Amino acid sequence: MSDPLISVVMPCFRAEATIARAAASVLSQTWPKLELILASDDGVDYRALLAGRAGIDDARIRTASTGGVGTGDWSARNAGLAAATGGLVTIIDADDAYAPGRLAAMATLALADGAALDNTQLILKGKLIASLLHGGEAAANRPVPATAAIILRDRVPVFPMWRRELGALSWRQLPHASDVIFSLELLSAAPAMRIAPLGGYLYEKRPGSMTMSESMTARSRAAYLAIIQAIAAGDYALAPDVADLTLYEIAKNLNQARPFGRTLAADPGLTHELLAIRFNSQPMTEAERYAFFEEH
């Protein structure tokens, strides 16, 4: 089987200061066939900006637009997805970066299993502070089965790659956590999905970003309530076991949202992910979580 084209979707909103690094990290990947789709959500022509300011003028760059300003990350990702032509699709935010070899490592798994994740590296002020996989899980340097528990446990974001033939996937309209629901629906469609141990996605936590803003608690609570209602109504394409665990975890997050906000406001060195790890310092196994949910 020949190497398929990989479409990399990059939502762009007020991304002038960071997009050159993100785009360069994609265009320098070793995978032989890729396209980078810049999905603007602020009316900026980011392809022209890259060429003019950073000297990045590459035929593999394409553009898309939401037609609006600040419509949401879910909207920009969907606009980019609609423009994608590759047999494999993945994403990157305009203020993050790929490590070398990221696309090749994920493509091998996505082609075999239908979809794949990698070991997201969470970076704050230039330092690695957390990752999707915990130490023992990545130590064997082998792919790890993806589970709803891993996706949900520490609030570390995931950036999947998947085969377009899985169906008409899209991001849900939510003020927060649309990426979480997307990944769980993807897991339900591709239950064999695995996580590459490579720390291929470099997720930057930046002062002023949405997840570190003063509005985050209110946005989170609104999203969690909407997710609970949607799961209860059967609006998401989730496997029953995934739906059960998601409902439990999102309800827990809803209850934690206000104390999270107070603790984060008191300590600017914390992030949502680090605080989630602290809250989950004695985690239950996935089976124990299911049992707890069924009993309560």
Overview of this protein structure:
By secondary structure, the chain is an alpha/beta fold. Among the domains are: 1-95, Spore Coat Polysaccharide Biosynthesis Protein SpsA, Chain A (Alpha-Beta Complex), CATH 3.90.550.10; 212-295, no CATH class. It is built from eleven helices and twelve strands. The chain has helices at residues 19-27, 46-54, 73-83, 102-113, 135-139, 148-153, 178-189, 216-232, 240-266, 272-279, 286-295; strands at residues 6-12, 34-40, 61-65, 88-91, 97-98, 115-118, 121-124, 127-131, 144-145, 161-163, 194-196, 201-205. The protein has an eight-stranded mixed beta sheet with strand order 3-2-1-4-10-6-11-9. Strands 5-12-7-8 form a four-stranded mixed beta sheet. Helix 8 runs antiparallel to helix 9 (240-266) and helix 9 packs across helix 11. The protein is globular.
Largest beta-sheet details:
8 strands, mixed
Rg over CA atoms: 18 Å
Q: Let me know the average pLDDT.
A: 88
Give the DSSP E fraction (strand runs of 2 or more residues): 15-25%
Helix-strand sequence: EHEHEHEEHEEEHEHEHEEHHHH
Write down the oligomeric state.
single chain
Task: Pick out the low-confidence regions.
Answer: 292-296
Helical proportion, percent range: 40-55%
The total beta strand count reads 12
| Count of individual helical segments | 11
CATH class group of the domain at 1-95: Alpha Beta
Alpha-carbon distance between the two ends: 49 Å
Shape: globular
Kindly identify the CATH topology of the domain at 1-95. Spore Coat Polysaccharide Biosynthesis Protein SpsA, Chain A
Assign the CATH architecture of the domain at 1-95. Answer: Alpha-Beta Complex
Strand order of the largest sheet: 3-2-1-4-10-6-11-9
Query: Which structural class do the helices and strands define?
Result: alpha/beta
CATH superfamily of the domain at 1-95: Spore Coat Polysaccharide Biosynthesis Protein SpsA, Chain A
